[in-house]
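Data availability (excerpt). The following record was deposited with the supplementary files.
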Amino acid sequence: MDFIEIIIEKMEQVLRRENQMPRLTALKRLQLEEQGNPFKILIGTILSARTRDENTTKAVACLFRKFKDAKELADADIAEIRAIIRSVGFYNVKARTIKKVSQLIVEKFNGDVPHNIDHLLQLPGVGRKTANCVLVYGFNTAAIPVDVHVHRISNRLGLVSTKIPEQTEIDLSFTIHRRHWLKINQTFVMYGQNICTPIRPKCKLCDLKEMCKFYQNVINVD
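Predicted structure:
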């Protein structure tokens, strides 16, 4: 068992012990509910930025009750999209992005979400985190989506020493075997939401203290 397997296993043990495993992330829940529909994963990821999971889940469900695919969203009235997704942060910007993304998918990719990162990055408003989320949750393709939780925990554990998520992704991809990539986002995000939180992390509950540089250098010193 290599180091990342140990980390993931310990995280899952803590989450089970603290009864947090059932709380799936919005994207994992969407993947399971929609059989990994890449378009819904893409739109869900766009909606999830700076938004609570429960609000993302609500907005995605309401949006796709009204519009079934990229073609319907491409033709939709922007005001109607905006009204449906009001529960998410920055809904005005996201409504415009969703419509533009849908139009480009219809015009350039025949209504299908592209399945490689270079094409995904051509879509308006889609950065590396969103593109990698689509690869992982929509296509079951090995990638490392790095959000604030993955970035924070990777630095706290000393897996990387980086300032920005983009560099975290690069460094993790060099040090972690590809066979583990699919599990990193879901596990780290759940752990970051419930245990290794940004403020007042629950270090007493964590089984990774011995290998955690943050705990050794900051928390344990206090």
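Summary of structural features: The radius of gyration is 18 Å.
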